[in-house]
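To whoever picks this up:

The nightly regression suite flagged Portal protein as changed. Nothing in the input moved, so I suspect the structure step. Input below, exactly as stored in the fixture:
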Amino acid sequence: MAGRRIVIIEDDEALGASAAAYVSRWGGTVHRLPRPDDTTLRRTLRQLEHPVDGIAVVSRDDIVALRYALLAEHLEPGVRLVVTLFDRTVADEVARTLPNCTVLSMTDAIVPSLLAGCLAPRYAMLRPHGDRVTAVRHGHGPGPGVVEQLPVRDLTAEGHRYPRTSVKAWFRSLGTSAKALVASLAALLTSFAVDIALGVVVLHEHWTDATWNAARTLTTIGSSHAADHGPGWYKLVSAATMLAVLVLAAVFTASVVDRFTGHRLTAILGARSIPRRGHVIVVGLGQVGLRLSAQLKDLGVRVVAVERNPQAACLPLARARNIPVVLGRGGDRFLLERLAARRARGVAAVGSDGLENMAVAVAARAVAPDQRIILRAGGDEVTTDSQSLFRIGAVCDFPRIVGAFVAASVLDSEPTSVFISGGRTHALFSDSDKVVDLAAWDADDSSPQRTPAPRSWHNGTRR
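Regenerated output under the current build:
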């Protein structure tokens, strides 16, 4: 890797800085271009003293990443190109069109670590493939852990140890419209049953006639003719029942219309119903949250996602995958209690805002003191200081993992997974069952005093 010349085109300073730092540690020379326009990129590539060995496009926006990838291929045809893309359709097309291009997904880089934190904290990462899972156990010392092959059922079995929840807990998990629908239906059925019982006991009707007359009353068609000769108290009860049925029928009808015409992200029963035990709560339905939720669902683990933006781009994808989504703020105590945080397997705060994730972690700790919390963070001082105060199960350093993933790929290493164990960054490769400590790749002059600093360009001027 020593002597490689790499250009990093970025629109995220943290990710670009992390990737550049790894390339420099491994003996390469880095030129960073933050959000360059066409003229700046063309001028920069021409001003370099030597041809570049690789170009990495690091962006959270697929459109921006695709534009830079096509421009880089136009300016430097055939150069080693690494691009971060989320959409699999676009990624497959780019990889097919540009043979020299390797398409990476930042979610694929971070999800194995998050998955391990959610399901099995004794492992540093979990990578499913079919009915098996490649797992790397945390090492007891400074060295990397051991690679294991686990059946999926070993990871999902833990969710069955939670006791069954009550009807009250199920009703509490429903939204306002669903609660109105269930409550009005239950009240109508109760009124129907009471009317049948009164018809049999008080009016001495046959049970078939009593059922018929109760159904007529419930649908406001008419009432029993025998009621005209019934006692006074029965007439008062019947009048009150008919008035209540009139209101309940209106509420029930409105709730049914709302359920069918609205874009509901959860269901009362079925695949998109909110789980109440042995589930994982994923807060933040961005690219990472969606991929993590889908991976958990594919493994047979119940999951519910929380998203505060009703216009989030990933909501239709979650609906298509039958992933229940609750709109709200993940740091809301009442929302976490509604989602049965105490009975969950874990709470994963994986939004793009590190401070918001920390707020979710603190709220979850207050609601469920013994709950497993998984936090996506940026490795900043706020996260480090907060972690020393609050017990957090796993903290996944997003820039550090993605930066190492991009740097290794642009240097032709192409790991299948990058993860952190024991404070050190490790990688797993498809052609080996051994874990590699990426510190072993550091160049001989990789000490802080001797490592060349990544160069940054702005408007064609070196900084």
